[in-house]
Design brief:
Blueprint (H helix, E strand, L loop, with lengths): L2 H7 L2 H13 L6 H14 L7 E5 L2 H13 L6 H20 L4 H7 L1 H23 L9 H19 L8 H9 L8 H9 L3 E3 L3 E5 L4 E2 L15 E2 L5 E2 L1 E2 L2 E2 L2 H5 L6 H6 L3 H11 L1 H7 L4 E5 L2 E6 L7 E7 L11 E6 L6 H8 L14
Parallel strand pairs: 1-3
Antiparallel strand pairs: 2-3, 4-5, 5-6, 7-8, 9-10, 10-11, 11-12
Helix pairs in contact: 2-7, 2-9, 3-10, 4-7, 4-8, 5-9, 7-8, 7-9
């Protein structure tokens, strides 16, 4: 099919939806299809096919193997396999949509997916880095610190050898919608649909399996309260609450949160997680909080948090009744400097208190 025809058939919305699904896909992998794809990528780059393909249960295990290969003198062919194909596909995509139209095209495709896939890829990369090359504790002997820094640099280089597969979805969506998902970039796209990250070297390819679990909130952030938000078949996992990394043991204690547990949590970010899970309204009641201000718009509450800025919230009641005749209460978090309930409600609408004059409170 000609490039222009491809561009007409596959619009930005369709391409973006397709690659959004690919980026969120979980195992099992189609190993046969993935191996065909990576071998085709080598041929498209003008390289001999790799002598072997090795599978690993996670990016952590594959990166550890890549580290060993680098230390043994293996040569990465990522630039030939991925970088050159990428540059050509991007050049053709820009030609298809026009230099002036590229920004708008990207906004409808890669710009839609990037805020979801990029943070996730960064989380995976940072977790692998920390597992394979932990940072030394402050005050460690200088020799230990130098050794740790050198190790982290080596691991970073091994991670740079990786092709990120499904986490390259923003680019694949942009290329496909522009009719440029063919040629040398086509097998890279097929590998992204069928497997996880992979490491191309002269004689061997290392492929990580996709996760078996992936849990995200409505904003696309890793999010799960009762287990790993991202889990691979070999046990590598990431835990998160609304995008914030948390220890596995921290989540295990969410079912037994108390006011005292929240008050005594030293980590300010984890304390916020505890508050969100416990519920601000419940915490206000159980902690015996007193209102700061009350007017016709609602009630302003303030929670003093040791070692952190206070949590200030406005309690408002919806003026429209629910089907059962009750009126729903909402809690709106506002800046700590807020002094009146009206100012807090006005802030949520992005206007000064003096300009907030609703005809009907909702």
């Amino acid at each position: 099919m000609e490039n222009s025809a491809t561009h007409l058939v596959v619009g930005p919305a369709e391409a973006t939806a397709r690659w959004r699904a690919a980026a969120a896909a979980t195992g099992p992998d189609d190993r046969a299809a993935a191996e065909r794809a990576v071998r085709a990528a080598y041929r498209a780059a003008g390289l001999p096919e790799p002598a072997g393909v090795r599978w690993y249960g996670s990016p952590l295990a594959a990166a550890e193997a890549a580290l060993e290969l680098r230390e043994a003198g293996a040569v990465s062919v990522r630039e030939a396999v991925r970088t050159r194909a990428w540059e050509e596909a991007r050049r053709r995509a820009v030609e298809q949509v026009g230099a002036a139209g590229w920004a708008a095209h990207w906004a409808l495709t890669g710009g839609e997916l990037g805020p979801v896939t990029t943070p996730l890829a960064d989380r995976v990369r940072n977790a692998v880095l920390d597992r394979l090359a932990p940072e030394t504790d402050p005050g460690a002997p200088s020799d230990d610190e130098r050794t740790a820094r050198a190790r982290r640099t080596t691991v970073r280089l091994a991670l740079l050898d990786a092709v990120r597969g499904p986490h390259d979805a923003p680019w694949f969506a942009a290329f496909e919608a522009a009719g440029a998902l063919d040629g040398a970039v086509a097998p890279l796209a097929e590998a992204a649909r069928t497997a996880g990250w992979w490491w191309p070297y002269e004689d061997v390819v290392l492929i990580s399996e996709r996760p078996v679990e992936l849990h995200r909130d409505e904003a696309g952030r890793l999010d799960r309260a009762d287990g790993p938000a991202l889990a691979h078949p070999d046990g590598f996992a990431l835990y998160a609450w609304r995008g914030m990394p948390v220890p596995a043991e921290f989540l295990a204690g969410l079912a037994d949160i108390t006011v005292e547990r929240i008050r005594t949590e030293e980590n300010a970010e984890l304390r916020r997680v505890l508050l969100e899970h416990y519920g601000y309204d419940r915490y206000l009641a159980d902690a015996g909080a007193e209102p700061l201000h009350r007017d016709e718009t609602g009630v302003l509450w303030r929670i003093v948090m040791p070692g952190d800025e206070p949590v200030v919230m406005v309690e408002v009641v919806n003026s429209t009744a629910e089907p059962d005749g009750t009126f729903r209460t909402y809690w709106l978090r506002v800046p700590p400097s807020t002094r009146t309930a009206r100012a807090g409600v006005a802030w949520t609408f992005g206007i000064p208190e003096s300009e907030y004059h609703p005809q009907r409170e909702t």
